[in-house]
# Entry
Amino acid sequence: VRLEGVGISADLPDGWEGSIRRGHGPPSRRATAELPPAELRSSEVPAPQPDAAEFGAVTGGAATDGAATDGAGDAGAGEDDLALAHLGNFPLPPDRGDFGSGAVDVMLPRDVFVALVEYEPASADTALFARRGLPHALAATDFGRASLQRTLDGQAGTQVFFNEAGRAFCLYVVLGAAARAIRLVPAVNRVLREVRIARR
Amino acid sequence: MIDTGTMHPSAERGTTPTFAERVAARVGTALQPKRLSRRGFLWRTTVVGTALAVNPFDFILKPGTAYASVCGAGASCSSGWTAFCCTINGGANLCPPESYVAGWWRIDDSAFCRGSARYIIDCNRKPRSTCRCRCASGTCDERRVCCNNFRYGQCNQQVAGVTEVVCRVVTCTAPWTWDPSCTRTVRVDNRTATHSAPCLPGANPSHIDMKYLDLGLTGAQVGTPSGAERAGANEGRIRNHTNGYITYRSGVGAWSVHGRLARAYADRGLEGGRLGYISADPRSVGDGRGSRATFQRGWILWTEQTGAHAVRSPFLAVYTDQGGPRGRLGYPLADRRSSGDGRGRVQYFEDGAIHEVAEWGVRVVHGGFHRVHEELGGNRGVLGYPRGRRKTDATGRGHTQRFEGGHLFRSPTTRTRPVTGRIAKRYRALGTTASVLGFPTSYPKVLKDGRGSLQRFEGGAIVATKRTGAWELPTAWLEVYESHGGARGPMGYPVGAVSAVGDGTGQLQAFEGGHIYRTKATRRRAVYGPIDVRYRQEGGPTGWLGYPTSSVVALTSGHQRVRFEHGRITHDPTTGATVVEAS
# Structure
């Protein structure tokens, strides 16, 4: 299955699912206008998404990257153009925090959760995002039991801030079981190698 | 020790308990020891109230304690979340020492922020400091401290790397306004909507409570609350704190003031005074000297040197036009006051003043103009109130400002000088600085005879008396005039300006006692007394004698003589005889 949207594409292997959607607008707007993200399991038939302007669409569906307007002042300039990608080899619950809360709670030891979170372009030049390029070859030693937004027993995570194509991102990966890192990390790398980030 | 006394209102009434009363009873039972200290009683009351406000249904229907409901989901250490800063930082809702603002997320439609967005801000360990992973204790917020090696990443992006989250700050204000190091990249996690702690305000807080939260609770410069929130003037709200005030009014918002600025606010009647409600938080002026508090109808500015003083409308608009405290005027030295003459008002600043009078409105006088204006008696002196703004002069070289009694002028090469009275009237008629006179170089000087005055300019002088009027003498004419004694000499005061003679070749200027005549060939010559009278009888410069080729000179014989182009006139002061001779 191929996911594409907001200048990001990902070819997911069987058993994986995900979403690529735009960032968040101001709270008042979000409360009234935002729809749930496009979600697909690879076993399901891709279908055109109802709101391609708001979310990344599956290839073959509606157009992507339409400009969403943001008239309120709470979000930053161009906020709606920032990407948020969630990938996982388990059923992702619809109600998730941007760094996977709600999803990591239900992970089994064999599960993997990947979040690719974009920041405003100006951040790409800062020290935090100085690393160039999306990592494609994570090592098991990159993962730590404490490297998690929410430390849950047995899990391990890693977080890498980087810039690519003039854009700033954070890659956040959670393994369902730290003990299975040797087996799970190569699967993560296979997915990461199929992720493309385009210049905006 | 206080006996809490557990009889419920319904028992007193003899009726069936209401829903809320059943809740309260259950909570009371759950938390009540046999006897409670006053502190314990207050603590229990807070916990119960917050529990009900946050989540009344969960609390009454599900087993558990009020603590669990106050602190929301995932409050245990094993839940893996990070504790709130106020839990571990002495009640302060601020990043503790050795931590920094590293990122944030948003929770939409939060009851903790009256239905608006709530923001959770991570305080991460500073890269070269240390901290120990542990569980918070002492309240139901038993979440982790300094354990989760994670970064949201929107703040302080100049700091590379990821360190442990020490604790979490909560605000109802957007993080990029709370801390300018934060960017606006929004990350959302609504699954953390119930996360809270006893040290944080409960659901549906007042606007003042939310402001206190954003200021840092016990870590706020405004200090802790020292009284209950109360109604203020014009349907607003106000709360006293140990070091200041927080006020709220619809359309204005909730804002604070603290320290010396707060004391100055209190001295001026708080929200019921002329300043009205606070309309922005205090801020440093940015010059390393002072700070400013902003109100509906004015500012209070403070420095160590000047103290705290208010600037109110309509002076404030003029003051800000002038650049405020970092502008020409500097900080106020006092509040606005009556000018003392029953006509206007004045406020003094470090390097100027703002004046107001009905006829001319609000006017600023600053710098050298201010100093000279004050030197001359200010509004009650010879210059009176400023009529106009300081502006570029007619030549574009300098500046001028008009007052009721005259003008002030300065240029890069001449200092500030006033021009007043008759002299000012003549100077204006000539075109002020664009005239042959240029800028004034001296103050007006009253001459020793007490009859008149003289003021010098770059290109001459103006000499004036009440009887003769004010007339200018260009420099070359002035030199001849003064070489013959000036106003105290036989020439006396000028009675006219330099004018052309009818023959089209010469000029003259008339004085009380004579004339100065000029042609290119004969230059300027002073002729006065009986010789000038006789010269005029002989036709003057257009007569047969022609123009004088000398001024009046005293001969060794005691006679006076003037030579002309075609003759001479000699006067004998002893006999009074005047002799005209052709050359």
